Backbone:
């Protein structure tokens, strides 16, 4: 079963085409990695999934409904690259505010804070946190509503290796419990932690695959090298 289905999606930004008739799907209850270099269209696709991106043509269906449908607001969590929390409130105050918006209580808010490793910083103003900590505060505010679909744009940027591993372990646990996750990254070693991969380049879908299939199809265990081989193969086919 697919949680997200994208068909022939075209997005323009000014005179530039950002997505070129992209079609793909995201399986429910899995971690799908959206991988590609900066400028490949990852954030644009994610914005289309959560219904905040103006599109030229095509359609995006999320949990059986058109993307952006009001009924999806409580079912989809979205964490942008820039922290989307209030800097003049503490981590705890932010989480409890967003919990209240979702009809949840203080216990759920405090659990979400602990889940992202910010229990010790719960009383600090978000404006006083590091960039990585502020990003995790945003994640806590998205988790507190227990969304069916969680869309995360570069959530591990600025985190040290230990915290990155902890966060990916959390993503795996969420998927095991039934949550669907779309996680973007430009770091190919994170692809190995995903159940499925959507590889983008220059607004086109380069591959819709799994880590194992990508390795087998390119003849290398190194996922970054595998991505490069796909790029070279595509460019060779165009020549």
Residues:
């Amino acid at each position: 079963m697919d949680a997200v289905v994208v068909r022939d999606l075209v997005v323009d930004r000014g005179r530039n085409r950002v997505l070129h008739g992209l079609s793909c799907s995201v399986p429910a209850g899995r971690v799908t990695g959206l991988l590609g270099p900066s400028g490949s269209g990852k954030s644009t696709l994610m914005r289309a999934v959560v219904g905040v991106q103006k599109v030229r043509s095509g359609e995006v269906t999320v949990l059986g409904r058109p993307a952006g449908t009001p009924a999806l607001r409580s079912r989809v969590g979205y964490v942008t690259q820039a922290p989307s929390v209030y800097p003049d409130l503490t981590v705890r105050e932010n989480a409890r505010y967003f919990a209240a918006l979702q009809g949840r209580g203080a216990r759920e808010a405090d659990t979400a804070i602990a889940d992202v490793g910010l229990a010790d910083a719960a009383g600090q103003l978000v404006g006083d946190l590091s960039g990585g900590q502020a990003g995790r505060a945003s994640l806590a505010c998205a988790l507190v509503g227990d969304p069916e679909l969680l869309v995360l744009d570069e959530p591990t940027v600025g985190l040290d290796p230990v915290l990155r591993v902890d966060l990916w372990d959390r993503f795996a646990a969420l998927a095991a419990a039934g949550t669907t996750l779309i996680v973007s990254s430009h770091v190919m070693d994170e692809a190995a932690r995903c159940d499925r991969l959507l590889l983008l380049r220059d607004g086109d879908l380069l591959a819709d695959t799994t880590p194992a299939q990508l390795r087998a199809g390119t003849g290398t265990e190194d996922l970054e090298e595998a991505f490069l081989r796909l790029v070279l193969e595509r460019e060779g086919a165009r020549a």
